[in-house]
Structures
1.
Amino acid sequence: MELTAGHVWLMVAAALVLFMTPGLAFFYGGMTRAKAALNMMMMSFISIGMVGVVWVLWGASMSSGEGFLQMVGNPFATFGLEGVTSPDGLIKVGYAATFAIITVALISGAIADRAKFGAWTIFVPVWVTLVYCPLAYMVWGGGLFGPEGAIGKALGPAIDFAGGTVVHINAGVAALILVLIIGNRKGFGKDPNHRPHNIPFVMLGAAILWFGWFGFNGGAATTAEQGGLIWVNTLAAPAAAMLGWLVTERIRDGHPTSLGAASGVVAGLVAITPACANVSPVGALCLGVVAGVASSLAVGLKFRWGFDDSLDVVGVHLVSGIIGTVALGFIALPVEGVGGGLFYGGGFTQLWAQLAVAGMAIAYSAVLTTVIALAIHKTMGFRVSQEQEVVGVDLSLHAETAYEFGVGGHGGSFQPLHELITGRPQGEDGVAVPAAAPVDVASNGKKTAAGKESVGA
């Protein structure tokens, strides 16, 4: 088959979406403490590795084709992509894989600074298999919410063009469940060192996410007209959301922030994701403003309600994902003059469909994530020790630091890192010698011996 412009565009779009995950690593990495930045970025990168393998072996098969009870595809139908040989099929598999990758990576921001890396590497493939793939099948693969699905026939097909339910509501609910199971960071709401350590990284990550999002939303466009509408909406909604977030900050706190601008962009991108091909540009602007204001207010609830959603996954992705999904019941454009949202004379039909798919995503993700997370937490444990958390998960889990403040050496068995991790100095021959200055947990990871640099940032 000849390579067409459509094939090329879908491959480019897939590359853009894959690039979003390293962008997410910068976005999240800058929002953590300095001593947890590498671990946070590694949680995104390992998601690429784990999901890439899962998707080729059974993930793609589970999210499409013939299914069980309209809820999940047969994992053995095209195991290892056996029989998927057409250019269209393989390119679509690659594009779909990038969505699964970033969905699970989004969850990691909620448990920053305190999750075991080994536990995360178990959670990622299991969650993608049992939660992401079935939900993707139900919404996109011809399952319950499709035109031929049981709920789709009863209420009308739900609209989720690029992942408001499958990606953002799904990830936001899973993030909340993990936070409740793992618990809060030491000093949550009290320790000022929990503030973001590198705002330029956050803004760079937001810029990469916005850039990649044009492929995220636009990759599945079928016509030039639809592609143009998606592009404009993917520009308009996050722009309006950023302004809405900054105005909210200015009124509430007295000053707009760079972190608020970056977070507002992401909130707008989340909200427009399910609606990008089905609302007008003015509708996208309105949707963006609502999402920006709502998420700006929602991120503060974690302090009031006492759950440590470290990097605001719940406040941004769950809240704006619900807003974007449900809003389609009001502002969805009619298709060839038929249907549409309530504001376009379509009645309540689309609204019921949107409420149903949002509710299903919340319930399914909550139940399955709880089972998976509890199984891991009760066996191998999902949380690092208090000592590891205080020293920093970069050092305690990876023997590396993102920044070298004069201590010398980046990882491995270099003396300063060995001492900080084990509390025992290391001789020139590489053999540990008796401890002289153990890590002082109460001092937040600072060494008690004179002359030693602190990594307590």
2.
Amino acid sequence: MKLLPASLPPVGGPAHPARRMRMVATGMLLAMAALFIVARSTVHLHPAIGFIQAFAEAAMVGGLADWFAVTALFRHPLGLPIPHTAIIPRNKDRIGDTLALFLRDNFLTPAVVARRMQRLDVAGAAGRYLASPSGGDGRLREGASRLAADMLEALDQERLGGMVKGAIAQRLRVMNLAPLIGQSLEAAMRDGRHAPVMDGIIHWADRTLEANDHLIRQMVHERSGKILRWTGLDENVANAIIDGLRRLLADMADDPGHSLRLKAEEGMAKLAADLQHDPAMQARVARIRDEIVDNPAMQRWIDGLWEQARSGLLRAVRDPGKAMAGRLGEALRQLGGTLQDDARLRLLVNRFVRRAAVGATAAYGDSIVTLVSETVRGWDAGTITSRLESAVGRDLQYIRVNGTLVGGLVGLAIHTADTLF
């Protein structure tokens, strides 16, 4: 999947400002070309038309030059592989590397981070944010909730999520599911809750038989002798089998005391007993449980369960009416007041935060730089070029318009000078 920068706007339609300005610039260029053709063909009619011709000719040249320059930034003009055109697509990787180096040299060095952190009173700001004596309880709960949400989002989600998902999987592995399933099945049969399930199975079997009776007919036809097929008796045999099965299913559906239903209930009762008391059956269920836990689909379900839990927790802590209230809110208020009043504690906290920031920069700065560079390399050249052109294209099209006008004025000035002197 190609990564795209979130800050770039989508490529717009005809109403997009960049598209409108491109149409204006191109229309002006075409208008100058048409004006030049008309003026050149009628210049013999009046000397003043020469000025118009000079203006249109120079404007056309200036517009073409600026069109070539603007287009060469993003693509090959007219699709021709002219050297030093399509600058951005060809140098996309180098741009990413340069951006990453600029980020590393100017923002992600320990010395720069240390200088910035020395001017920040993180502890005092946190104390005012938590206590907020002038904001009231609502602001306290809101600030504390937001702080808790930020802390939760700042945790290493891969490691935290791996720990939670690993704990869920381990908990599932140690559960002895066989007795629980056996007890549930036994209780359902004792209360008669299994009857609707059996009715549903019978109705499903009847619908399946009706939808696939052609398979039975085909099987009987293929296994019948030549005489049966020649006489058409294979069709009668197939009809008899299908009718017999359907009557059997209908009788089972209508008669709760049908012998086959009773046999099925006996089998279910034996299964419930084996699940609770037979070690061999319990071992089989344990093996099935482990296979299910190891199945990739189950792992994806556990991943989704963790994400849902994390999202629910974030929604809870972001709601100041539900989280960080009561004693916890009061404790955070006291902590905020202490951070504001205790200069020694504030100094220790600021020093810890500064060292943590510098240490994180030293440990992960190169990784961040590599991430930026690889992310830019992963962008699709055509798409990113189109979106960059849409983002800055309006100003670039103004360059074309200005080039057309300036070129025309220069041509007019030169023609005027030639005429006068």
